[in-house]
Write a structure and sequence with these properties.
This protein is an alpha/beta fold. The chain is built from nine helices and eight strands. The chain has one domain (6-226): TIM Barrel. The radius of gyration is 17 Å and the shape is globular. The model has no long low-confidence stretch (mean pLDDT 96).
């Protein structure tokens, strides 16, 4: 099957987001699409932005640096959606509008040390599936991490992120997304000063409609927009 042009593919993703939101009584505009451009060339990214993409997601700091330099005129927002190593924090805090992958107090302290004039916006990555290969804090350790990070003036927690396991059918991912939403509700009950739960980053190409139904405000979609990458 031939891949759709980027503009058509993005339009289809937005339609699917809208359909999923309306199915559960949400407004489509509550959900933003992060177009994950890992491994994607600058021309395809330009096409995506011309088609209406306004948030681009990158997995690696170095790859993002090269693209940002080439696409400085675009005016798009860039998010870091991949794992952040402490030795890359000094670059990441200046490059990205939102970091989706805070997963340790150590990383938070390095962000604090390197933070520019204003606080760095982050989401805490939670490993809701418990898979050993995945990054993220365990649900059991979430409160401790949030309470340790909350006093850091250079770090602003705005929500949670998770990755569901690879599943045969998107419906199988639902329990993982529901768990993240339930965790966000619990965090609100804890009332930790300076910690907000305005964002839930969950859902990728294989399962984003279900993530929207379960409360995602950010879906990270790459292949469904840009096609398969080598």
């Amino acid at each position: 099957m031939m891949a759709l042009p980027v503009a058509d593919a993005y339009r289809r993703v937005r339609e699917q987001v809208a359909e999923a939101a309306l199915r559960v009584g949400r407004r489509p505009e509550e959900v933003a699409v992060v177009a994950v451009s890992k491994g994607v060339g600058v021309e395809a990214i330009r096409e995506a932005v011309a088609a209406g993409v306004h948030i681009l997601g990158e997995n690696r700091v170095q790859e993002a640096q090269e693209k940002m330099a080439a696409l400085a005129d675009l005016g798009a927002e860039w998010h870091l959606v991949g794992h952040l190593q402490t030795n890359k924090v000094k670059y990441a805090v200046k490059m990205f509008t939102l970091i989706h992958s805070l997963d340790s107090v150590r990383l938070a302290r390095e962000i604090q040390r390197r933070s520019p004039e204003k606080p760095v916006r982050v989401l805490v990555e939670v490993n809701v599936s418990g898979e050993p290969a995945k990054y993220g804090v365990s649900p059991e350790d979430l409160r401790g991490l949030l309470e340790a990070v909350a006093p850091l003036s250079g770090v602003k927690v705005e929500g949670l992120m998770t990755m569901a396991p690879v599943v045969a059918h998107m419906e199988e991912a639902r329990p993982y997304f529901r768990r993240l939403t339930e965790l966000a509700d619990r965090v609100r009950e804890w009332g930790i000063p300076g910690v907000s739960m305005q964002h839930l980053s969950m859902g990728m190409t294989q399962d984003f409609p279900v993530a929207v139904e379960e409360g995602a405000t950010l879906v990270r979609v790459g292949t469904a927009i840009f096609g398969a990458r080598s």
